[in-house]
Design goal:
The chain is of the alpha+beta class. Helices cover 40% and strands 13% of the residues. The protein has two domains: 23-124, Phosphorylase Kinase, domain 1 (2-Layer Sandwich), CATH 3.30.200.70; 136-336, Transferase(Phosphotransferase) domain 1 (Transferase(Phosphotransferase), domain 1), CATH 1.10.510.10. Strands 1-2-3-5-4 form a five-stranded antiparallel sheet, covered by helices on one side. It has a two-stranded antiparallel sheet with strand order 6-9.
C-alpha cells in the first residue's frame, strides 16, 4: 500500500515566461536521464516516446535491467493528492491480484517523484496487444475483471478525483467550444443543437434515478487494455474518477444494436459473478457517450497551445471537422431517443 509520501518538489524550473514555449519543451533526453538518476536508476540512454498526448510517456532503457516506463504528468492538470489517489487505487487493485499495471514504489514507499518542476512516476514495462472485442469469450473475461475492479472501487470514494457529471463533462466543455473554437458560420447550429442535446442528456440521467458512483478506470477503451498470456492487463488510470459502473462497460461495445446487446450480455454475465450490476444504469449509455463526444473536442481545444496537438490533430481546426462533428452530434441526439439497450 502507498503510504502517501511523495518526493519533495524541487524549485519549479518549468519556464512559462516564453509565450511560444510549452512546459513539455523541457523534457529533453538529458532531462529525462537526470530524472531517472534522481530515483537511483542509471539509464543506458535508450529513450522511446510512447503514444500519449495528455502526458509524456517514455520507454527508458536501464543498465543491466529491463526497461521502465516513465510517465511525466502534464503540469497543473492534477494536484499531488489527485495523482496519489490514482496510485492508491492501482495498489488496492494489485493487492487483490488484479492485472493492473501499477506505479513502482521505491524503498521509502514513494510512487510519485519530482524533478525540476515535473511530477513523474515509473512503471514496469508490460507487453501485449489490443483485445479482440469481437470475441465474446474475451468480453466475458473482461466483465469478470471489471466486476472485481468495481467491487474494490465501491469500498470507499475518492476524496480528490473528479465526479462524472453533465455539468463538468458536457455543459462546461460545450460552452468552451462555442465561445472559443466553433467557426462563426456554424456557431448558431452548434449552440442550438447543444442546448437540445444537453437537455436530453440531463433528462436521461434524471430518469435513471439514483445511481451509485464508484471508483472506476474512467477511460476503459481497448487502447488501455493489453492482452497477453490469455489475460487482460489494464493500464493508464490517469482518468480514474467517481462514476457509474456502466462508464467502464459501454466503451467496450461496438457495432449495431443487436451486436452491442450480445456483447453487453457477455460482459454483464461475467461482471455479476463478482459485483451486482444495476440494469437501470443501461439508460445512461448514450448519455455518457454524448458527454464523451463533447468533452473530447473540448479536450483538444484546451490543449491546442501544446505543439503536439496541432501536429496530431491537423484536421481539428477546420470547417469540415466541425461540420462533421455537428452531424455526429445530431446522430447521437437521435440515439438518445431510441429504446434503452437491454441485456439478453
Amino acid at each position: 500500500m502507498i503510504n502517501g509520501n511523495v518526493q519533495e518538489p524541487e524549485e519549479d524550473a518549468v519556464d512559462s515566461s516564453d509565450p511560444l514555449s510549452h512546459p513539455f519543451d523541457s523534457l529533453t533526453p538529458n532531462f529525462i536521464l537526470d530524472a531517472m538518476e534522481s530515483c537511483g536508476y542509471l539509464s543506458d540512454g535508450r529513450l522511446f516516446p510512447l503514444n500519449s498526448y495528455e502526458n509524456r510517456v517514455y520507454q527508458i532503457g536501464i543498465e543491466d535491467e529491463a526497461p521502465l516506463i516513465g510517465k511525466f504528468y502534464r503540469p497543473n492538470r492534477w494536484t499531488t493528492e489527485q495523482i496519489l489517489e490514482e496510485h492508491q487505487f492501482c495498489f488496492e487493485l494489485v493487492e487483490q491480484e488484479l492485472p493492473v499495471v501499477a506505479p513502482i514504489l521505491n524503498d521509502k514507499g514513494q510512487s510519485l517523484f519530482q524533478h525540476e518542476g515535473f511530477s513523474f512516476a515509473l512503471f514496469p514495462r508490460k507487453g501485449g496487444h489490443g483485445p479482440e472485442l469481437d470475441n465474446l469469450d474475451n468480453l466475458y473475461l473482461l466483465g469478470k475483471l471489471l466486476g472485481r475492479i468495481h467491487a474494490i472501487g465501491a469500498v470507499r470514494p475518492f476524496s480528490f478525483r473528479h465526479m462524472l457529471n453533465s455539468h463538468t463533462f458536457g455543459h462546461e466543455p460545450s460552452m468552451l467550444v462555442s465561445e472559443q473554437f466553433i467557426p462563426k458560420e456554424l456557431k448558431a447550429s452548434y449552440d442550438s443543437l447543444i442546448k437540445d442535446l444537453m437537455q436530453a442528456v440531463d433528462e436521461s440521467i434524471s430518469n435513471a434515478g439514483t445511481i451509485q458512483h464508484i471508483r472506476v478506470h474512467g477511460d476503459c477503451h481497448a487502447g488501455n487494455i493489453l492482452w497477453r498470456d490469455g489475460n487482460a492487463h489494464f493500464v493508464d488510470l490517469d482518468d480514474t474518477l467517481m462514476a457509474p459502473a456502466i462508464q467502464d462497460i459501454w466503451m467496450l461495445l461496438s457495432g449495431d444494436r443487436d451486436r452491442q446487446a450480445a456483447q453487453l450480455s457477455e460482459i454483464i454475465d461475467g461482471y455479476n459473478e463478482f459485483f451486482d450490476f444495476h440494469p437501470r444504469e443501461l439508460q445512461l449509455i448514450d448519455a455518457l457517450r454524448t458527454l464523451r463526444m463533447i468533452n473530447y473536442t473540448a479536450w483538444i481545444a484546451r490543449r491546442w497551445s501544446d505543439p503536439a496537438f496541432p501536429m496530431a490533430f491537423p484536421w481539428f481546426n477546420t470547417i469540415r471537422f466541425w461540420s462533421e462533428h455537428i452531424l455526429e452530434l445530431r446522430e447521437q441526439f437521435a440515439a438518445l431517443n431510441e429504446p434503452t439497450l437491454q441485456v439478453r
